[in-house]
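Late entry, written up from scratch paper. The run itself happened at the end of the previous shift, but nothing got recorded in the book at the time, so transcribing now.
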Amino acid sequence: MSKIVMFDMDGTLLDLSFDDFIWNECLPERHAKIHQLPLSESKEKLYQFYQSHRHTLVWYSSTYWTKTVGVDVLKLQQEFQSKIQARSGCIELLQQLKEQGYICWLVTNADRASLRLKLDNIAIEHFFDVIISSEQVGYAKEDINFWQELQRLHPFNPDETIFIDDTATVLKTAEKFGIQHLFNISQPSSLKDIKQHQDLEFKTLDRLTELLSILNEIDRKDNDVKIA
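Output as recorded:
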C-alpha cells in the first residue's frame, strides 16, 4: 500500500508572505480607513483579536473576521491574489511524489473560501487525492479532534503517514495523535528569516525537495524491517 504524504498549505507549499501581507499590512490599513482610526490603534486592536483567537477554528475564518472587524477579508485576499506564490520546489516535489506512487493529501486550516482562492491561483489541486479544510472537519489542526475526525472521514494509518507543516503546535497535536513522520519548515515566508534547526522541535526541511531523499530512506528502513 502506498504511503500517504500529508501537506499543510500556507507556509509549507505556498509562501506565507501572502498571508503575512494580508493580515499584518493590508487588513490594519483597511480597518483603520473604514473605522477612521490611527493605523497604530488599528494594529493594536487587531493584534489583540489575533492573540485571543490564535490556534482556534475561527482564527482561520474569513467570515468570522469579516463580521468581527468590519472588513471583507475574502475580498481583500482576492484584491491582492496576484501575490499568492508557491514555495520553491513545491511543484517539483508534488510531481515526483505522484510519479513515485505516493498518495498526497492537502490538509489545511484555511477556510474553504481561502482554500479555493489559493487553488485557483496555484495549479496544484490535481496532485491531491484528498483535500481537507479544517472548516469542513469542524476543528482546527491544533485540536486532537481534527485528526480523529479526519481519520473517520478518510481512514489512514498514522504509523505510515508523513506530515509536513510549518506550525509546531499543529505538529505536536499530530504527534500526540500518533503520526510518526513529522517535518517542519525552516522558512515558511520568503520575507522572514530562516528559523534555525536547533530552535525547532521537529525534523526540518530547508528545501521542499529534500523530502524525496528522506522518504527513500524511510522506505528502505521499512523494507529492511519487513525482510528481518
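Residues 17-35 form the longest helix (19 residues).
(Scratch paper discarded after transcription.)
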